[in-house]
User: Fold this.
Amino acid sequence: MTIDHQACDFAIYGILGDLSRRKLLPALYQLDREGLLHDDTRIIGIARHDLNRQSFLDHIREGLHRFIKEDLDNDVVNRLLARMHYLLVNLDVPDEYSRIKTFADQKKRLLINYFSVAPFLFGDICSGLAHAGIIEPSTRVVLEKPIGRDLASSREINDIVAKYFSETQIYRIDHYLGKETVMNLLALRFANSIFTTNWDHNTIDHVQITVAEEVRVGSRWGYFDKSGQLRDMVQNHLMQILTLVAMEPPVNLHDDSLRNEKLKVLKALRPITHDNIDDMVVRGQYGRGYIRGNEVPGYLEEAGGNPASTTETFVAIRVDIDNWRWADVPFYLRTGKAMATKRSEVVIHFKRLPHNIFADSYQNLPPNKLIIRLQPDEGVEIEMLNKVPGIGQGLQLQRTMLDLSFCEAFNNSRIADAYERLLLDIMQGRQALFIHREEVERSWQWIDSIQNGWQQSHEPPKTYPAGSWGPVASVALLARDDREWEE
Ligand code: BG6
Assistant:
């Protein structure tokens, strides 16, 4: 395979942290295995611990073994380790950035700075890099979430980074945009004429987006409790899925074409405020329950938890998009921790037929559904009615599924982790799958209004048993509109 990108110095700030071990290094391993890393690409691990090269490499090797599920190819592991270098830099000490300057070689390699650290350090890193005179027009920075906890703090972070880098140098990650099936939404919508022409208020009744997680908050309690499911999952991942489902066709897949169309959707979201929040949003918190037959504690009883917390672990929202395409077509979003199972999907519910010619046998013909399974068991299903074969019993109809499992359709080919695609895009300078500053801020603006509504109402979240599909009130959210969740 020809590689059309140049050699990089890929610097990871926070190389010893959880994200690097779980996601970034395994993704780099897979890219190396596939021959997608340039021969001269190096990985510079940066942290504040005093480590010699051997113990650094031992630590990386152990992480690869722990977090990559398949058998490792030792040649690839050794090749990857040979690319790795460790630099001790205290991120708040500007003089220490000269170590990066001495090591990096921007004449031969593109310098990519991946900030896999808490956002309060982003400013220190940017000013440290500037202090050392490392920033060139080609230098890139990668920002991990959370980019703020509201509009004001996200602006602060974006402003600091913008002092040193232009928007074309900044890559804001939302790992959902790197997922194979999230990207397949584009293919489904814009490569198939049956969907390009049937994707609006004329044919669609409503849309459901579910991102259910089985995991509990557990050891992440301290971090999660300050954020909650609305900030942790809706502001970024669910909003991104929503924009891909709802946007107008982009002119092409170039960087800004896609991002501009997503932004237009965010601009058209009808605000949810204190006045309508009770009709539009349900927030929940898991209590004690059973997941896969095992009794698990409630959110307030998790180790290290504060029993008085009112942070939500579940949220369901009715979203209205005020534009021509989606007039009177609600989008229902729901996401939660400690739910019955891990399942992410988009379900497009089509409208009922205007006239039923089978009324003698069937009063109500169930409308068609398109189910896009994002994870696990990635695939696409269409629920439709067919005639049951046979003569003599009159005309019988039955609901049947056209089921396309990606795994079967594509010969069990491995589905790459989201980070693999995203890291490759960063190295190759493609920005389409990264979030533009305006998207982040628009999305926070909409989320802030919900947070303010909650603050004013003082209503605690509704409890749901761990291992369920959320509070009963979320069923009522749809029942009010004469609809129900896809189960
Ligand atoms: C992260 C959230 O962004 O996404 C986590 O902070 C969440 O709370 C995770 O569990 C879900 O990602 P995935 O890829 O497992 O669906």
In short: The pocket of 6-O-phosphono-beta-D-glucopyranose is lined by residues 213, 215, 232 (CB under 6 Å). The first helix runs from residue 18 to 33.
